[in-house]
Amino acid sequence: MDVTGIAQAATTIADTGTKQAVGIAVLKKAQDIQASSASALIEAIPPVPSAPNLPAHLGNRINTTA
User: Fold this and answer.
1) C-alpha 31: how far from its chain's center?
2) Whether pLDDT at 51 is above 80
3) 3-state helix, strand, coil in the chain (%, to 5)
4) pTM for this one?
5) pLDDT by residue (tens digit) across 2-28?
6) Which domain of life is it from (predicted)?
7) Angle at 55 (CA atoms; ends 51, 57), nearest 5 degrees
8) Phi and psi at residue 50, in whole multiples of 5°?
9) CA–CA distance from 11 to each of 1, 14, 20, 25, 43 (Å)?
10) Secondary structure letter of residue 45 according to DSSP
């Protein structure tokens, strides 16, 4: 058996694990940033003003047979 080959394989496996851990950490950070951005956008939506001249019952039912 080649000892250097085994050492290289072990080093490669360790490097791959580290790269995957870093990739997952970056992905989680990006998801956190997107979640906070989405929350900020949702909170920035102004409330819908009601139309003062329309009756309260208008728009409560949808005619699906027309």
Assistant:
1) 5
2) no
3) 65, 0, 35
4) 0.54
5) 777 777 887 888 878 888 999 999 999
6) Bacteria
7) 115
8) -85, 150
9) 17, 5, 14, 21, 48
10) S
